[in-house]
Amino acid sequence: MVKYFCCAGLLKCSWDQACVAYWQRYPNPYSNHVLTEDIIFREVTPSNCLISRRLMTKTSRAPRWMERYLPKHMSSLAYVIEDSIVDPQKRTMTTLTWNITHARLMSVEERCVYGINSENSNWTELKREAWISSNVYGLSRAIQEFGLARFKTSVTKTMKGFEYILAKMQGETPSRTLAETATERARETALAAKEKAKDLASHAQKKQYV
After folding, report:
1. Res 189 pLDDT > 80
2. At a CB cut-off of 8 Å and minimum separation 6, what does 67 contact?
């Protein structure tokens, strides 16, 4: 059994900008899990397509119940291969990524196609597909469900990171990250709690002397 996931996205930028942003998307505030990216192979074909292969190192903490099936040094890191083809004539960029770490435990393959939006040629549409599989007897279904849930969360962060890089490229001020927003809200909550505590203490003192 293989879990299949498919979704579509829209980037409000030209296809050229989307391609440039793709190669510049790391680092960004939503990709702290990406540690390194190395180009293994790159060439331009006779038809003028750019073919690349990259190796990426990511932090990928496995759930506690899964850690006992992994060597200790492999439970927090993952190595991912990324192949890409940029076709300037068809105006498409196709990427295929898959994990080479923990592959026997869980395999995640992702295919993305970036193309010009059919309704607005200044925008880029993205089709994303993923296949999650596991061959662990008795646990494959649970592992696949875990992998699918994590992948969906990753997609949201990936799109936010992409939009962050695009905003920087276009000279705009990127929207605040979730961490920044959460920190500000926490400060506001703490300040409100502090003021309320002062108010309660003041009322308590007044009652003492009445």
Report:
1. no
2. 75
Q: How confident is the model at residue 178 (pLDDT cuts 50, 70, 90)?
A: very low
8-state DSSP, 165: H
The pLDDT value given to residue 203? 60
Phi/psi for 199 (5° steps) reads -65, -45
pLDDT band, residue 103 (cuts 50/70/90): confident
What is each CA distance from 95 to 53, 141, 188, in whole angstroms?
10, 27, 42
Burial 111-148 (b: 16+ CB within 10 A, else e): bbbbbbbeeeeebbbbebebbbbbeeeebbeebbebbb
Q: Pairing mode, if any, of strands 124-133 and 107-116?
A: antiparallel
How far is 149 from 146, CA to CA, in rounded Å?
Answer: 5
205, containing H or E segment: helix 178-209
- According to DSSP, the residues that pair with 36 across neighbouring strands are 57
Residue 186 predicted with pLDDT over 90: no
Which structure tokens are listed for 101? 């770490």
CB-based burial label for 150 (10 Å; 0-12, 13-18, 19+): middle
Kindly compute the dihedral angle of the four CA atoms of residues 33, 34, 35, 38, in this order, to the nearest 10 degrees: 170
Q: pLDDT by residue (tens digit) across 19-46?
A: 999 999 999 999 988 999 999 999 999 9
